[in-house]
């Protein structure tokens, strides 16, 4: 009798212990992911305005349109070019880019003017640069490119948000039917945008379904562009590829290319739900697209390394790895939702 009692007690104790441990583990796991999860900050009021040249040597400041409200800038104020006609909006996230951006802009503007007359705009999202990137770009648009009012718009973020935050902000305030984001370093040849547009048109079909076309460098892994990068850079690249593969995106070879095209409806269904503001945001974009069954095409593009990377290899790789795990776990634990704007 006494012996049996003892055994029972032990059994209860062990069960109790295991249950407590399991609950503790789940709760602390949830708590850790919750604490590491990220909500993009709301834009400050001044970040909802853009600056552009007025074509007479001065600058004007105006309110940005909002994709989610469905306004493609329909307030036909004193804009002489018809805003609703904009085909392509190019968002350029820029952080301390005075040394690199002029090449990229020259390349882009030449292609845009040739391929789509006046039906384009460029939105520079200056992510709290300390080197006068905004002023530099406005000056270029007047003195070098001789653009018209509204063609090149500069949005200045008062505080640095990270590339993901800047791209999100830019794409949510475009006028075009299509939105492209492109790196300021001009690493991709802007010409290739026509390949992306061709590809996205096939995906969206006649009904204009949401669609995404992304540039890909996966055909280049064995070429100079990649092989010549430093050993450590390539090691980190392979590490990241492995991690991305493990944490869920297997159908896409190059997730990180800074040249991605979305149609308006894809922007509406992806970007309001994007949590990540750091470097790994590309992966969350693609995850959201996959979850929402938005078709994605990968298009091979030309690419060359450009010096002056803003990436801090040690710090940023660790953050990317951490954010990648957080994104996947947060969606599993429903801390991140793809049906609730953040
Ligand atoms: N908004 C924002 N953009 C940034 C930040 N850091 C870099 N960028 C932009 O992100 C783009 C890519 O930056 P790069 O420094 O060229 O990155 P990279 O080392 O070439 O990285 P990969 O292109 O992924 O190989 C550029 O347009 C930068 O201006 C940032 O803190 N905030
Ligand atoms: C941007 O420029 C400021 C001022 O020159 C500098 O302190 C900062 O480290 C720069 N950031 C990057 C990522 O280059
Ligand atoms: C504007 O650009 C012109 C031509 O490149 C240059 O000469 C001038 O110094 C620039 N001004 C400013 C304020 O950057
Ligand atoms: C997708 O973008 C294209 C751009 O031409 C547009 O025509 C279409 O309406 C968009 N799809 C939806 C559902 O809005
Ligand atoms: Mg680059």
From TrEMBL:
Keywords carried by this UniProt record: Endoplasmic reticulum, Glycosyltransferase, Membrane, Signal-anchor, Transferase, Transmembrane, Transmembrane helix
Single Gene Ontology MF annotation: dolichyl-phosphate beta-glucosyltransferase activity
Compartments where found: Endoplasmic reticulum membrane
Keyword RNA-binding among UniProt keywords: no
Predominant location category: endoplasmic reticulum
UniProt-listed Gene3D superfamilies: Spore Coat Polysaccharide Biosynthesis Protein SpsA, Chain A (3.90.550.10)
EC class of the enzyme, as a word: transferase
Catalysed reaction, written as an equation: a di-trans,poly-cis-dolichyl phosphate + UDP-alpha-D-glucose = a di-trans,poly-cis-dolichyl beta-D-glucosyl phosphate + UDP
Lipid bilayer topology: Single-pass membrane protein
PANTHER family found in the cross-reference section: DOLICHYL-PHOSPHATE BETA-GLUCOSYLTRANSFERASE (PTHR10859:SF91), GLYCOSYL TRANSFERASE (PTHR10859)
Family, as annotated: Belongs to the glycosyltransferase 2 family.
Name this protein carries in UniProt: dolichyl-phosphate beta-glucosyltransferase
Species per Swiss-Prot/TrEMBL record: Zygosaccharomyces rouxii
Taxonomic lineage from the root: Eukaryota, Fungi, Dikarya, Ascomycota, Saccharomycotina
């Amino acid at each position: 009798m006494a012996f049996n009692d003892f055994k029972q007690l032990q059994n209860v104790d062990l069960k109790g212990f295991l249950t407590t441990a399991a609950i503790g583990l789940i709760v602390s796991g949830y708590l850790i992911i919750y604490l590491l999860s990220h909500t993009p900050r709301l834009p400050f009021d001044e970040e909802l305005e853009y600056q552009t040249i007025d074509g007479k040597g001065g600058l004007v400041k105006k309110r940005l349109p909002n994709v989610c409200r469905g306004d493609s800038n329909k307030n036909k104020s004193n804009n002489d070019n018809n805003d609703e006609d904009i085909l392509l909006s190019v968002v350029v996230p820029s952080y301390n880019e005075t040394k690199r951006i002029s090449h990229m802009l020259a390349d882009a503007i030449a292609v845009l003017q040739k391929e789509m007359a006046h039906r384009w705009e460029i939105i520079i999202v200056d992510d709290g640069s300390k080197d006068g990137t905004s002023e530099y770009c406005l000056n270029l648009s007047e003195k070098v490119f001789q653009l018209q009012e509204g063609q090149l718009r500069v949005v200045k973020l008062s505080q640095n948000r990270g590339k993901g935050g800047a791209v999100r902000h830019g794409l949510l305030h475009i006028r075009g039917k299509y939105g492209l984001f492109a790196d300021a370093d001009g690493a991709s040849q802007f010409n290739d945008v026509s390949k992306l547009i061709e590809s996205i048109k096939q995906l969206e079909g006649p009904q204009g379904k949401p669609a995404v076309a992304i540039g890909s460098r996966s055909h280049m892994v064995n070429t100079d562009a990649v092989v010549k990068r430093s050993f450590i850079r390539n090691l980190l690249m392979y590490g990241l590829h492995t991690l991305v593969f493990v944490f869920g995106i297997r159908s896409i070879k190059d997730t990180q290319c800074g040249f991605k095209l979305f149609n308006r409806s894809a922007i509406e269904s992806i970007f309001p739900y994007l949590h990540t503001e750091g470097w790994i945001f590309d992966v969350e974009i693609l995850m959201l697209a996959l979850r929402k069954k938005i078709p994605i095409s990968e298009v091979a593009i030309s690419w060359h390394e450009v010096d002056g990377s803003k990436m801090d290899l040690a710090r940023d790789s660790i953050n990317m790895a951490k954010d990648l795990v957080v994104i996947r776990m947060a969606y599993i634990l429903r801390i991140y939702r793809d049906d609730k704007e953040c």
